[in-house]
Design a protein that fits this description.
alpha/beta; Rossmann fold; Alpha-Beta Plaits; 2 domains; 6-stranded mixed sheet; 4-stranded antiparallel sheet; 11 helices; 14 strands; binds adenosine-5'-triphosphate
């Protein structure tokens, strides 16, 4: 549904904001784009929505080339993407239902069709009772719901959400993410979420892309990314509570759940360690549910620092369990 091929954007300076970005998002996916400030996320959105042109490369949304479209073709291409952002920007002087109807009116839809679509969308976002309320009479989460309904009004096949929950509290964030999932399930839209919140990616995304300095550092289905357990993105998706640091001559072990296991099995991990003569204590640990799988991450401290842990590490790895001396992992910065 969304295909980016070698997309670069160079600003005068020169500043390379996007550097040969390749991205392929199939229809019906919820895809997260994460990256630190300055990674190129806003530039990517502007190029995707046709607000800015890439310096090179091609961007296709639903088969339409956003780069070469001009005039009415560009306007048509832009209608392929419904946009929701942190600042909902509803029209204050109009009720919830009139805000949702607004893009349909602009598109020249018939009054009866507008009424039917607005009813359907109000029901979808759970605001039928609030249809006559003005934005000032709605909570932040309810305003965001109106924003989502408005973005979907003209049947855009792609919903682009730019930091959709940054201004919301945890409970409201969860409701909005549930709504995004419902929208995808019911309407089959493809959803792109730009966010700096890993919790959003964990909770709702099927796949994720990490941008760094304008380049795609990692992209793929969430479970594949987590399967690459030593990678910085996997570690950010499963953050650890503070852990001890290794003292002189001691090694801490970092362990992550076995591939394919639906839940972590700590007993198995300790049994395997013991098989190689290693006794250990848990220094820190966490469990996150991602795509319906519980993923565990553990930091262990061997009781006898002088023990050789190489054979134990090998045994754990042979069972598909990620195991690494802490500090040795690729990309480890702690
Ligand atoms: N119009 C511009 N002219 C020159 N440089 C720009 C312009 N717009 C963005 N940049 C540069 O391009 C790079 C990517 O910026 P961009 O705003 O896309 O990052 P971002 O990931 O969206 O950051 P944030 O999360 O802070 O919004 C940065 O180095 C930025 O300074």
């Amino acid at each position: 549904m969304i295909e980016l091929t070698k997309v670069s954007k160079v600003f005068p300076g020169p500043v390379t904001a996007l550097d040969e970005v390749d991205l392929s998002i199939p229809a019906g996916q919820i895809h997260g784009i994460v990256g630190r400030s300055g990674a190129g996320k806003s530039t990517l959105i502007r190029c995707l929505t046709g607000l800015d042109r890439a310096t090179s490369g091609s961007i296709e949304v639903g088969g339409v080339d956003m780069g070469s479209a001009k005039g009415s073709a560009l306007a048509g291409a832009r209608r392929q993407i419904g946009m929701v952002s942190q600042n909902v920007n509803l029209l204050d002087s109009r009720t919830a239902e009139k805000n949702i109807a607004h893009p349909l009116k602009i598109a020249g839809a018939k009054p009866a069709d507008i009424a039917a679509r607005v009813d359907e969308l109000l029901e979808l976002v759970g605001l039928t009772e609030r249809r006559k309320n003005y934005p000032a009479q709605l909570s932040g989460g309810q305003q965001q719901r109106v924003g989502i309904a408005r973005a979907l009004a003209t049947n855009a096949p792609v919903l682009l959400c730019d930091e959709p929950t940054s201004a919301l509290d945890t409970a409201t964030t969860r409701q909005i993410l549930e709504l995004i999932r419902r929208v995808r399930d019911r309407l089959g839209v493809t959803v792109l979420i730009i966010t700096h919140e890993m919790s959003v990616v964990r909770e709702v995304c099927d796949s994720v892309t990490l941008l760094a300095e304008g380049r795609v550092e990692r992209t793929g289905p969430i479970l594949d990314v987590i399967g690459d357990a030593g990678s910085p993105l996997a570690k950010e998706l499963i953050p650890m509570p503070s852990s001890g640091t290794s003292r002189d001559g001691e090694t801490l072990l970092e362990i992550m759940t076995a591939e394919g296991a639906s839940r972590p099995d700590v007993t198995e991990i300790f049994a395997l360690l013991r098989q190689e003569g290693i006794e250990a204590t848990i220094e820190a640990g966490t469990i996150e549910t991602i795509s319906g799988r519980q993923i565990g991450r553990l930091h262990l401290r061997p009781k006898r620092p002088q023990d050789d842990i190489a054979a134990a590490l090998q045994l754990l790895r042979s069972k598909g369990i990620y195991a690494q001396p802490l500090g040795d992992a690729e990309g480890e910065t702690a």
